[in-house]
Design brief:
InterPro entries: DUF1405. There is one protein chain. This protein has one domain (about 1-200). It is mostly helical. The radius of gyration is 18 Å and the shape is globular. It contains 8 helices and no strands.
Length: about 220
């Protein structure tokens, strides 16, 4: 059966390398974006809370690694399990925080916050995070790792809102932290369900245009 043009496009190694570079640079920019909050957290909170602060860049990092492991699949059961865990985390967190960031920007704008060009840049980039994760979910093999990804995402929610290290919100939403918390927790379960629905059902799909040498 011929490969559908859509699948052929996103399985092409050139496209995957382009997305890898875009996500890699976006991840670096994301951690820089969180620089002030990371510095504030380091000065005022225990150090172990630092990994829970930059939610979106970490999601982008998971997806960047997932692309790399799709391009160069690891061998052995340990490598396979690590790859599947990273893929599960990539899809769940990218969908979750992609939707979350866009929703928070628009919720702030609805309550009177100024939506600047930087906010629109974030809307585009975070929409892209969610969309690309759902596209590539069909090429990943991660379903057995979804419970661990769900546990991580839910634990992140608990730490964020019980310790006060959730991403800084627009000022107009500071009196809606409880609502944001419930929305975030709901997104955890929604994104996990989306990962299950969009995830590959028939095993791993290799990128197209890989060298034929060594194939079995």
């Amino acid at each position: 059966m011929p490969v559908h043009w859509f699948e052929r496009l996103f399985r092409h190694r050139g496209v995957m390398w382009l997305l890898f570079i875009v996500n890699f640079l976006g991840t670096i920019y994301g951690y820089i974006w969180y620089g002030n909050q990371l510095e504030f957290t380091a000065d005022n909170y225990p150090a172990w809370l630092l990994p829970f602060v930059p939610d979106s860049p970490t999601a982008s990092l998971f997806f960047t690694l997932a692309l790399l492991l799709l391009l160069y699949p690891p061998k052995g059961i340990k490598g396979t399990l690590v790859r599947e865990l990273i893929e599960a985390l990539a899809v769940v967190t990218s969908v979750k925080y992609g939707i979350w960031a866009v929703s928070i920007i628009f919720a702030g704008g609805y309550q009177g916050d100024t939506v600047s060009w930087k906010d629109w840049m974030l809307v585009v980039s975070h929409t892209g995070m969610a969309v690309e994760a759902l596209i590539y979910a069909r090429f990943f093999s991660f379903r057995r790792m979804l419970p661990l990804a769900l546990f991580w995402a839910f634990a992140n929610d608990m730490v964020d809102y019980s310790k006060g290290v959730y991403p800084w919100l627009p000022d107009v939403l500071e009196d809606n932290v409880n609502e944001v918390q419930y929305f975030t927790m709901g997104l955890t379960f929604f994104s996990t369900a989306a990962a299950w629905l969009f995830g590959g059902r028939s095993g791993r799909t290799e990128p197209l245009d890989r060298p034929a040498v060594g194939r079995r």
